[in-house]
Protein 1
Amino acid sequence: MASRYLAPFIVSWNITKRCNLKCAHCYLDATELAGRAEATTKEARRYIDEIAGLNPHAMLILTGGEPLMRPDIFDISRYAATRGLTVAIGTNGVMLDNGTVRAMKENLVSGVGVSLDSASPAHHDRFRGMAGAWEATVRGMEALRSSGLDFQVQFTVTRENRHEVPAIIKLAEDAGARAVNIFFLVCTGRGSQMTDLTAAEYEETLNCLMAADVERKGSMMVRARCAPHILRIAEEKGAGSPLKFMTSGCIAGRGYLRISPEGFVTPCPYIPVTENSPRLGETTLREICQTDPLLRSLAGPSLNGRCGDCEYAELCGGCRARALATTKDLMGEDNWCEYTPKKTEAKRIMEEKELVWEDAALENLKKVPSFVRPMVKKGIEKYARGNGIERITTEVMEDIRAKMGK
């Protein structure tokens, strides 16, 4: 009998290592040159078939490098969408214009993630290694807004820009973004040369993010990425922030996978490829999900250090990639967390009971932008389980909206 495994609901595919920028924090160390082992169009279709075979409703994020530098990017997006996958493109935004955005819509791209690392053009351009990058990206967001194609802003927090979290949230909302993702840097690739936040700065920034989110009352989805500790803060404060429902603990290898430009599979983009990493073409994605020791270890992790002692281990679990990068132990403690475990009763994730969605509630869910719909659905179900609700109705959804201030 085959081993049990969790089919991925999100696959992030670094479809190319080519890039037109040279960002200081790039985990892929991307360049303008094409990788020799990049998947061909034919291979890309085969990978898509394997993803759809595991989960025909998965979200596929085509990223890079800069995915728009692949001449066949829209052939790939269209093929993936026809297989039932929700397709999003992650871009630095420099190549976005009306024609490119039109091609995205014609080739069934559901949403776009646009990276913007400062409200200051000078800082963003310096960070991204190209003069004029900020202006080009902001123009690209206007093209997306004008076309009606949903997009979200991706902001990577560093020591230099962490004070800009409220400004970026406002900029994203004013630009018409459906969501803003606040990424907390994992120092890999070129990013390994950057100075980490201290644990105190990290905690302060998470509290700032929580406050900014509560203040906005859910007018735009705000999410912390690579920062599962936000759940501990929300639990401690009893905050009414949507972050409590729209942010999860570390999902690396637990429904989330990354495919490298060369076809290697890792639990997340920040966990590097090694000589032991499985590779598509040499084995199947199903076989990888069923048997890869790294993925199996993350399915039910036995954590070490403070993470292992922490009562919030099930809710949070720390960032596994950051633990690996800083302690060389995938199950080690995440040293960006300054919390001292109290060794009280563990805070448990609600039992994953099957929930019933009424037809009217499902119709309401369909109104949510498709590329964020899986996360919204997961957040609603998380809220329902946390409140002992077994049947999701339009009234439950309205209750959540009211709590979010919408």
Note: The first helix runs from residue 41 to 54.
Protein 2
Amino acid sequence: MVRSVLVAIPTLNEAAHIEAVLDQLYVDLPDCNIQFVIADGGSTDGTVDVVRRLEKQRDGLSFVHNPQRLQSAGVNLVVRQFGQDKDVLVRCDAHASYPRGFLRSLVNSLQGVEADSVVVPMDSVGNGCLQRAVAWVSDSPIGSGGSAHRGGRQSRFVDHGHHAAMLMESFRRAGGYEETFTHNEDAEFDCRLRALGGKIYLDTDIRIEYQPRATFAKLARQYFNYGKGRSRTVRRHPTSFKIRQFAVPAFMSACAAAIVLSPLFPLLLMVPAFYVFVLAVTSVAIAFNKRSACGLLAGPAAFTMHASWALGFITGILTLRETQWQPDKAYRGLGEAV
């Protein structure tokens, strides 16, 4: 039985969002002791002032400064300082939107399945035209590559998903997050958790919404970092590499090589031409299905995501050093024995 829950919310310049997120999370709470902790990485937009004000108004809300700034370090810090007597750790994102009773649903799911972690699908939503196009293509096979937590509709045990709730004992046993990871720390953690016998359950009845990046430049930067982070995880956990992840850098490299070699072998242009055709068909199909001209940006958005992820992954493979993880040398992000 779950008696206590620790909710960790890492922030950095989230003054415009943090109060709304807390309003959503505080609705229909589970019948147990709950501690909310904001771990701020040095915000300069007034986030700290907002949280300090809310701290006086809400029961069970605390604030800590996260000197390492990264989300991975922030969650670990919250666990170190507040997790000693907690049964469950919930990780929330200040950029997401949460349904009514989100925490209650997580606790019920965690108790209802024999799992160490419950992960949830992310449904992309957008306000601007590009955001909507990114959201639509992200939840399609060409955008998500079949990732279960991107618009997934079938609850099942998975290798990885968007982190929501974990048994505190399991989080500690796996060593917490790797605090040097700027991206992909959740997937890297899941590799360690599974290697130690942990089970991860995707509950598609519990869904969150998030807004994609609003410009092509921000989208490219985001996916470059995603790809680079995944390369670190693959180097540390080689068995975690999926064919769909290999397909992106391999195909994008093939397209680039075909263009370079096309003066000598013109037929090679059929490779990038086929890719452009698929993107064009995707754009038209999404625009038609959504009854919106914004869908025509889905193809360019998908190209940005594919090319940036591939470039980030290849850059990481070529430039980052990483030691393969072994269970007897588990990362101890919480400073504890595994």
Note: Residues 24 and 98 are 6 Å apart (CA to CA).
Protein 3
Amino acid sequence: MKKAKDFDFARARRVTPEETLAFKKAIENTFQIKRPARGRPPKGDSKYRDVHIRLHPLALAWAHTEARHRGIGYQTFINEVLLNRAQAAQHK
């Protein structure tokens, strides 16, 4: 078999999760590098809810701009602003 197109893929089998883990460990040990984690990072202790809201375009543009200046996502910025406001209201 000289070319990939000559390979009979109908006879091939899938790689098992155990084999995939072994491959990852072998790559890390061979090249002395740590492979980056994939997927979404775990969230904190408090659970977040997926909510869809409508915002005025000026408010959204402001949030985008402020978040970019701080180097965070605009949804994270909006969440921080709302949490600060909620905490301030509780302490009154």
Note: The chain has a mean pLDDT of 89.
Protein 4
Amino acid sequence: MRLGAFEINEPVPELNSPHALAILRPWIDVGDVGSLTMSGLESHFKAVELARLARPGNFFDFTRYRPTLYLENDRREVWVPNTTITYARSENGPDFLFLRLLEPHMLGEDYIESVLAVLQRFGVKRYLLLGSMYDMVPYTRPLLVSGMVSNLRLQNELETAMVAPSEYSGPTTIAYLISQKAPEMDIETGSLIVHLPQYLTLENDYRGKARLMDILSSLYGFPLAQEDTDQAREQEDWVRKAAEHIMQQEPRYRAILEHLEAAYDARVKKQREETPLSPELEQLLQDLSKRFGQK
């Protein structure tokens, strides 16, 4: 079945108020954090392919996203880069759509409209963009996660998970139009972007994956995989040893680290001071106050 630019696999499933979790390559997937997180989610929920672009060449420049040759049953096959969508059912909550988006080089508006058409067709209630970026943050602190939201309810959920409001402004991707236009379809939108130290880059950053999975597990109530925790801890130990070795050779870097730590701590303190209580917590405190006042 065709839906916009997508070919939908049949039979078409009926989903229960699904939430769409998306990643975007290559714009906000440094350290492959978004890709690693998406693979973990699809594996945990046993996701099944739902759709892919019928003609990806309408949107992508294949001299920039290179097709790949591979062997299958002694035959050469060509893998063509594409945007894919999988789905999964959840026993205790909303079902899921998982979107692996590639940033379009051409016909960006048509691309966005097709993604929105899929979200609308399957009755998506929430769209969350997951990813990572490099930032001047200290490696000695928990990885900072920031995000933007479209309504107060989602803002309260993310603040409870210690997600900071995004302060970014500047060049962006056309794919952010999904987040801008989806609320017009009664779809709440948000983003979860983990900030990685730009001076200690890793090809596969399992620390970032573990940080995002921790937040998502608190939002959706699924258990964290022990493998994610172990990989993140091993990588954290390696980063600390590598950084300490560098600072022993160049003591002036320690002063820079202290400056980054101070800036990080100030930002976290400001966020905690400015975070308003949710209506539910405000009501709870009012009820407690009344009870104590009666005694």
Note: Helices lie at 33-45, 108-121, 152-160, 176-181, 206-220, 226-249, 252-274, 279-294.
